[in-house]
Design goal:
The complex is a heterotetramer, with two copies of chain A and two copies of chain B.
Chain A (H helix, E strand, L loop, with lengths): L6 H17 L2 H8 L9 H8 L17 H13 L6 H15 L1 H12 L5 E4 L6 E2 L6 E6 L2 E6 L4 E5 L8 E5 L7 E3 L1 H40 L1 E2 L2 E2 L4 H30 L4 H27 L10 H13 L4 H14 L1
Helix pairs in contact in A: 1-4, 4-5, 4-7, 4-8, 5-6, 5-7, 7-8, 7-9, 7-10, 8-9, 9-10, 9-11
Chain B lengths: L6 H17 L12 H14 L18 H13 L8 H14 L2 H12 L5 E4 L15 E5 L2 E8 L10 E7 L10 E7 L5 E6 L8 E12 L3 E2 L5 H6 L6 H4 L3 H17 L6 H29 L7 H24 L12 H8 L9 H12 L6
Classes of the chains: A alpha+beta, B alpha+beta.
Chain lengths: 338, 379, 338, 379
């Protein structure tokens, strides 16, 4: 029993953190809100050059072949930077699925993903719209129990609003075909569950990162902002708001790391572990969002200051791939009825 | 205890309902947008022309001399009918009552009717970049000059400042003074020379706020409200005992709770017992606020001092509103994210998230409850 | 529309408050914990002399014939004093029922109740045990839709523990008979609902009183207790705990008064109004209990100090006659399905 | 990351489970009662005789030299098997680790084994009537005399003080000193002349606390722990980085969450979706604490400073425990009120209500998180 990360894993995390600090700072993010794709120009290429896009691609397809426990810290960093690129979708969701299914789709897409030439979007049955469907290259789409790998060129998209200004949502029209089929029947069902778990885990990891950054921003602000002759961070009410959110976050954190192992190893407790992680991370990140807004006061309620971009990302990711209520419902079934 | 409305009250309600059902505009674009703003102003003018804009004001300024109870009835009907947010609200609910109490006859005659018919729109100029919760830390100043004052400084979080004609706020007239002393309450023309207005986008992306810069703006003596140097008292006494109810009327949350119930009826599959429990809880809390309003109306009538209890009310509805929206978002699930049109739950959630911040944060309100109502030590 | 109490009603409240301050202070209450019946010796006679026991008894049976709106402030005072006598059961629940049904039971019991010679206990189907069943004179018992008035002499009781040391709980064995029958069928059902509403309202009124007293005690303590060189009531954390509980309580208060009118007039909205009152009062009193315990610290956790008796009464009354969850469930049915 | 237990760890768990399943006593009367206490002591002695009393202590004092991870495993098994509250806990978990760190060999040899086998029971003597959250305000004093000290003052909230033989706590040895300075850590015999012990009934009616009065109690020099005048440092360093886990182990809440799940299975009619949601939530939070324990174990092993994070843990389980019990009480409905026997949910709820008070209130813990972990200003 050794519940911790290796030095290599931590080093990769630190390297990515550095890249994102340089390239995905809040001004870059604000600019991304104004672009068509909602992405930071040039960032994907840099992620590819660093090896991030190939991390989970098997070696025979030009990647490094690492697993979910290696990815989880990177997704946390992506969350911390509120990084708008489809990193989770491409690296943590689509790639492991393609690698597991193998065959022509894997041969086509995995080298491109490793090389930074393809980004993926994910459309599961339970989600209403597909983020990045128009600018992605490959769509992983679910219909019933069947999973399909659909090239962007063969879908029709209609744009929808999102509360998160970096998120490009689309209603997608598409036709399943034998060519696009990855798996169906029992295999499709099992893989679909695994994809859903991976997606929920990826969202949970990002939520932990988002929450951490909101806490950091709030602490900085509370130390500097003076009212009634003292930094507002010296008021107990402000301290306790932040401490409560931080406490929730620090309890969610290990559950996300733990679930990454359950997903990587496909353990018996995968559903329960992922649900625990997604439920706790969603609630914790939301608590961080609320504490951040309240302790900053009006400034966090505006576009003058970066927090709102993090808060909106929290709003969409806490709902994505199963809200905390959905995951508690799944857990209750397994605990009480199982 | 008599909980039946009188025939007069019932017919007042019926009259309001008939007008509102016939005229409330549907699907307006958001108030804080260039498209939405003029349409909201148009609606305010229709309200005024039919004497529904300021029912509790004196008739000579366009009101009906209504009691607080009738005003509560009107508000219930206004939101029940789906009436839009009031473009005039910072004038008619914040400055209006202050003017009625502290203004000269000349000021009232000159200002109130135009305010009520949305001819002149007012925004508040309380906060400053360095003075938010700690309002008394304000540093904007007014220097006495011949026939008036010259104003310098910056005001922020002026709601709808970019759409307004006028602003009101406190400025330091005694440069030697500290904190609450030496402040004066000014009415300022936003067209005046020396004014700069910079829009600030709020959480939902609309230009809801503005920062107002004043660089030697001349304000004539007649636009001082109350006594020079007594601005703090004027500002604090702004609305008297009914402030708790007028800041946000119970009718607004009753209508919201009814909308939530309708949403739950509409999507039974999304409503398990947990959601149903929450819907019932929110509805009960909206109903409790309505009853507290009627209870408070009688206490005010009996001459009781209920001023500080506005903090109890603000704490209650600030958080009820947010909780209620979070339940709605849960019912909507993944659909919520993309609903950013006016009236949509997500948009209205973002709006409500400001409740525990503006008009005195929840932390300040809890201090007020603890210190002024319960008598706990200030320090 | 005049939502307030008359001067007479407030005067009666003040008079009762004075009696309870003198006769039902916390030492008297602590002593009552040690008695067989759990009551304060002599208090019932004084309540009768003041006219409290006869308040709701019709004039023709020797009472004053007042209604639920007159009673509600008295029940609130009983709660404020954590008064252990079966005042609610006798005056607010049993008496209006007997008066409404009339006949022999009313003729027998109402004059005794008015005269302070009979106390009632209430056993509705949903409750598991009957408080005061052994020492009361009359039991109002429910079986299915039928309501019965059963003299204490014809039931068998077996004592049960209660977390509230002033509460004497019993399992009751009894046999319904034509002699004991008050009403059955549709009439019994309707009356049963009215009895349940009256019982819930009575509990709600007491909970508001209990909560108020807990707030008062806590404020007093927080003003006097010094730690870190200042009264603990000067700390924001303490202030905000109390302010939050007080806010909940002040929102619950009008709903209890409002519901007293709905019960008195048997309005269309009686179920919804009573459920609102009981749910809000239960939750508010519980919030006051938690704030009181936390702000007092260890002392409130002991028998050295009176608060625990109030806290335990809150624990039992918030559950009695429908918990807040039960009442919200009833309300949800009427709001969403109705 | 390797989340499989090693074969050694698995066989340690199996051995513990086998012993506990065979020997854990069922239906003991409450620990804090005259009937229950001796039976709990008897159980402690059986544990000790089988070397399960203090698995993480050195073998010479009756332990097994276990790692923190093995201790966590033992605790999971202990509570899984329904093991009763530990009569020795204030000795073995609070004083024990301090003695191991600061005690002389003579003190360790003299005290630890007797403590572990429940021959000498220890209660803490931290709080004073005027010094609760503000421990440094303590006024009890120790005057130097020949061969030792004479102690004067009063200590309160000494858990199980009426059943204990000894107490430990801080006394002011430098009469000129203030706050944290000039304090000394003493070990005191409760049979000594000048001691008075008064029981205090706790919320559930049992004699859980005592007030201890000291009127010139002689304590020999050998019963000073650490240096004279350095008592505060000794007390603060009491248990080192694992304190967050040892104060209340994750195993305790896992077992409680499992009991709650069993209750929910047992009473499906009382469990609507709202209750099921809460059951799942509590279970997840107990599981999260287990995982945080394992995570923290590795951080400690890596030499990270995790001391202040014990406040995160205490905040978490203090409130989880109460929430979990409130859910159980909801499931039980009217049945809960009359369940006051040991092990019943109502009784155990009353016990847990003290969580946010003892060992540093939740307010103090939040201050620690905010100031020591997050770096917010102290004043």
């Amino acid at each position: 029993m050794r519940f911790g990360f290796s030095e290599d894993q931590k080093l990769f995390q630190a390297t990515l953190a550095e890249l994102l600090t340089d390239e995905c700072h809040h001004e870059a993010l604000a600019a991304a809100w104004e672009t068509d794709a909602g992405w930071v120009p040039g960032l994907w290429e840099k992620l590819a050059a660093m090896g991030v896009t190939g991390m989970s691609v098997p070696e025979e397809h030009g990647g490094i072949g690492l697993d979910d426990t290696d990815l989880v810290l990177l997704l946390e960093e992506a969350g911390r930077a509120a990084c708008p690129e489809p990193l989770a979708e491409t690296v943590a969701i689509a790639t492991p699925l393609l690698a597991e299914v193998g065959g022509a789709h894997a041969d086509t897409w995995l080298p491109k993903i490793a090389g930074g030439e393809a980004r993926a979007a994910i459309g599961l049955e339970r989600e209403r719209f597909v983020a990045d469907a128009a600018a992605a290259d490959l769509l992983i789409l679910q219909r019933g129990d069947a999973l399909h790998a659909v090239p962007a060129s063969s879908v029709k998209t209609a744009a929808r609003d999102s509360v998160d200004g970096a998120r490009r949502l689309y209603a997608v029209e598409w036709t399943p075909s034998a060519d696009t089929l990855l798996a169906d029947g029992d295999t499709g069902h099992a893989l679909g569950n695994r994809v859903a778990n991976r997606a929920a885990l990826a969202a949970a990891a990002q939520l932990v990162g988002l929450g951490s950054e909101l806490i950091r921003l709030t602490v900085e602000y509370a130390k500097g902002r003076v009212q009634f002759g003292q930094p507002i961070g010296a008021f107990q009410a402000v301290k306790h708001h932040i401490a409560n959110a931080y406490t929730q976050l620090e309890l969610a954190r290990p559950t996300v790391y733990w679930a990454s192992n359950s997903v990587a190893k496909n353990t018996d407790s995968i559903d329960l572990d992922v649900s625990t992680a997604k439920a706790l991370a969603s609630d914790a990140a939301h608590a961080c969002f609320r504490a951040a807004l309240q302790c900053h006061g009006a400034i966090a309620y505006t576009y003058e200051y970066q927090a709102h971009m993090w808060m909106k990302r929290v709003l969409v990711l806490r709902e994505a791939y199963g809200s905390s209520a959905w995951h508690r419902r799944r857990a209750a079934r397994s605990l009480i009825d199982g | 205890m008599d909980l039946e409305y009188t025939p007069e009250q019932q017919s007042f309600r019926a009259e309001a309902r008939a007008f509102l059902e016939a005229h409330v505009p549907k699907n307006l674009p958001p108030l804080d947008t260039p498209e939405g703003f003029p349409l909201h102003v148009e609606w305010e003018q229709l309200l005024f022309d039919n004497r529904w804009a300021v029912v509790d004001w004196p008739e000579k300024y366009g009101g009906r001399d209504c009691s607080l109870l009738e005003w509560l009835i009107f508000e219930e009907e206004y939101y029940r009918a789906g009436g839009p947010q009031r473009a005039t609200q910072n004038g008619i609910f914040l400055l209006g009552p202050t003017l009625l109490k502290f203004g000269s006859e000349e000021q009232k005659d000159r200002i109130l009717t135009k305010m009520a018919r949305a001819e002149e729109l007012w925004c508040q100029g309380w906060s400053e970049p360095g003075a938010g919760s700690d309002l008394a830390a304000l540093t904007s100043r007014a220097d006495k000059v011949d026939g008036g004052f010259k104003l310098y400084g910056a005001k922020t979080w002026s709601t709808r400042g970019t759409f307004s004609h006028k602003t009101f706020g406190l400025f330091r007239t005694d440069p030697e003074s500290e904190r609450h002393r030496g402040l004066t309450y000014f009415l300022v023309d936003l067209q005046a020379e020396g004014i700069g207005v910079r829009p600030i986008n709020k959480l939902d992306g609309d230009e809801g706020f503005a920062e107002v810069y004043l660089d030697g703006v001349f304000v004539p003596d007649r636009d001082v409200l109350g006594e020079v140097g007594k601005g703090w008292n004027v500002a604090m006494a702004t609305t008297g005992p009914e402030r708790g109810l007028t800041l946000r009327s119970p009718g607004r949350f009753l209508a919201m709770a009814d909308r939530l119930v309708a949403l739950a009826k509409d999507r039974p599959d999304a409503c398990d017992d947990r959601i149903r429990d929450r819907v019932a809880d929110h509805w009960m809390k909206a109903e409790a606020f309505r009853q507290l309003g009627l209870w408070t109306d009688r206490r005010i009538a009996a001459g009781e001092d209920v001023g500080a209890e506005s903090s109890v009310m603000k704490l209650h509805w600030s958080h009820l509103d947010i909780d209620l929206h979070e339940t709605a978002l849960e019912i909507l699930g993944p659909d919520a994210e993309s609903e950013m049109k006016n009236g949509a739950w997500m948009k209205s959630y973002l709006f409500g998230l400001a409740n525990p911040i503006w008009g005195g944060t929840s932390e300040i309100q809890r201090n007020i409850v603890a210190e002024r109502i319960l008598g706990l030590p200030r320090k």
